[in-house]
Amino acid sequence: QVQVVESGGGLVQAGGSLRLSCAASRRTFSHTAMGWFRQAPGKERQFVAVISWSDGSTYYADSVKGRFTISGDNAKNTVYLQMNSLKPEDTAVYYCGVRGWRPGERNLGPPPYDIDYWGKGTLVTVSS
Question: Residue 27, Cβ neighbours under 10 Å: how many?
Fold first, then answer.
């Protein structure tokens, strides 16, 4: 079983920065992509950013482009989200998601596609 654990959330003022971390626990674990999603109160979970390991491509939701940066290490099953210039509307629970390996699947773009493993989330609150 794969465990996915996020960390780094917290309370920050508008304009500030936070760095989220995510680690998937199983050492020998093939996966195609890791990414971040968020869910604000009363809203559906939405895509934020993803990194496709086959070619290192990264993709972002329009709402975070230019402010957030995803990075990671495939060999260590880790991914990070550097969030700068935070806004109150970025307030949400941030979830890390992992797309498991499938034969022949490469160069994934942004979702929608199934996410196989989810973390429990970390809360980010941006005050105005």
Answer: 8
